[in-house]
Amino acid sequence: MASSCYLANGQSLVDGSNYPGLFSPADEITVDPPIPEGAVLGTYIGGTASGALGTYWQATAQGGVVLGSNLLGEIRVADTGAQVALSGSGLEFNISNDPDSLLGGLGVGLGATMSWQATATFDEPGEELFLLPNTVYRVVFDVDGSNGLLNSTLGLTPSFGIEMLDGAGNAIDAPAEDGTLVNIIGLELLGIIGSPPESGRAVVDFQTGSSVAAGAAGLRFTGFAILPATALNLGTNFATISNISITAVPEPSALALGFVGVAFTLRRRR
Question: Residue 139 in contact with residue 164, Cβ under 8 Å?
Answer without folding.
Answer: yes
